[in-house]
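In response to reviewer comment 3 from the previous cycle, which asked for concrete evidence that the modeling workflow produces usable outputs, we include below a single protein chain processed end to end. The sequence was submitted unchanged, and the resulting structure tokens are shown without manual editing.
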Amino acid sequence: MNDFIAYCGLNCETCEARLATIRNDEELRVKVAKLWSELNQAEITPEMIHCTGCRVAGEKTPFAESLCPIRMCAIGKDIETCGSCDEMDGCEKLQMIVKNNADALRNLRQTS
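The workflow returned the following structure tokens.
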């Protein structure tokens, strides 16, 4: 499985936070912070936009590092992704991602 498929099925390879990190692109960090602040109704600063990917070694955003309920659950269950979990189809935590992202759900189904 592609290590850049996050626990929730999102593709970290195409995530702008990861791209800003690996390119050291401050302008993209500012753009991502602004967008994520609006989407999450929380203050997210460009300094928080450092992430190499959810399931790979390296930097994580503060949310991914210790707050993401999906990542914390998968790590606790010691599973590769939510696609390996028997509770995937009824999981309320996962619904916040897959209800609006058919690609994430498809990625998870390919790993199950």
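The chain has a mean pLDDT of 94. We consider this sufficient to address the reviewer's concern, and the full set will be provided in the supplementary archive.
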